[in-house]
Each structure stands twice: as structure tokens, then as C-alpha cells.
């Protein structure tokens, strides 16, 4: 039976809380949460989802990039489970890119992120990974890690009003293609 979870929207207290590290990845609760998060993000056609977005204040997120209408340049990445993530090093270089969020429905904004990051995390089997991520994958990682620290992409903007409606964004993209 395919189970999905309700995605909480900005304003829910858990989305501004600091999530707790997971001491043991092998519990039934964590295994179920991973299955549910994968189903939920797939159904929502997202490129990532963090545990606090479904009301679990734990340091766990899923990254699952694929090209889509919203992210045409996205690389293909099978759903990856990221537990207790850390950013070990960030590039000085930063870049702007469009982001949305399953917890901030209907809004998009240009967000400044580090172009390249060195990260460490545990996968669902408890194996530690050290990796360098660049571009869109570095962006997803930074966006999802922010959720574990109680930050949505709206808080990364100089001005909350810099976020635009999805319809407006589609219009802009269309105009850019014509130019
Ligand atoms: Zn988000």
C-alpha cells in the first residue's frame, strides 16, 4: 500500500525548529519514514523533501533530481537518502537560481547558494559518504539542509516580496525564451 504524508506549509512550528540528529538509522520508525518520504516527494513531483516538512523534527532528507517543467536543467539523480548531513566546505563562488518549496506553495524566487560544497552524510544503511556537489545538486542539498535548521528559502531572500507567484514565474521564463 502506497502511503504518503501531508506536507506542512510555512508557519507550522516544526518548520522553524532545529531538527535532531538520528542516532540509529536502522530503526523501524526511520525505515518507514524513508519509504513515506520517497512516496510523498514522488507524488508531489519535488526534487527534495526534508523530514520536518512532514512533521518529523529529524535530520533526514531525500534528494531526487530529474528534469521537469519546473526544473528543466535538473540532472538525473535516483532518490538519495541523506541522514545527519554536514557541509564541510563551501566555495567562495555563489550563484543565483530559481527555487520553490513544497512547503511554500505557489511561490518561486531567485536564491543565492554556494556553487560547490563538500558534504558528509550517512545513507539509509548507515554508511558515511563524503562528496563534492556542484550546481543544481549543491542547491538542493543547501535548500534541504536549511529545512533541518528551521529555514525556508523565503528567509534567504533580502526581501520576502522578492518571491513571485508561480504563474508570474512561468510568464518570465516564457519571455526569456522569446528574447
Ligand atoms: Zn523546501
Automatic annotation (TrEMBL):
Q: Which domain of life is it from?
A: Bacteria
Protein's GO biological process: translation
Which Pfam families does the record associate with it? Answer: Pep_deformylase
Keywords from the named record: Hydrolase, Iron, Metal-binding, Protein biosynthesis
Q: Which GO terms describe its molecular function?
A: metal ion binding; peptide deformylase activity
Q: What is its EC number?
A: 3.5.1.88
Cofactors, names only: Fe(2+)
The record's CDD domains line, in alphabetical order, gives: Pep_deformylase
Active-site residues?
144
**Cofactor stoichiometry and binding?**
Binds 1 Fe(2+) ion.
Chain positions recorded as Fe cation binding sites: 101, 143, 147
Catalytic activity annotated for this protein? N-terminal N-formyl-L-methionyl-[peptide] + H2O = N-terminal L-methionyl-[peptide] + formate
Q: Indicate the family of this protein.
A: Belongs to the polypeptide deformylase family.
The job of this chain, per UniProt, is described as: Removes the formyl group from the N-terminal Met of newly synthesized proteins. Requires at least a dipeptide for an efficient rate of reaction. N-terminal L-methionine is a prerequisite for activity but the enzyme has broad specificity at other positions.
Query: What is the recorded name of this protein?
Result: Peptide deformylase
Species of origin = Cognaticolwellia beringensis
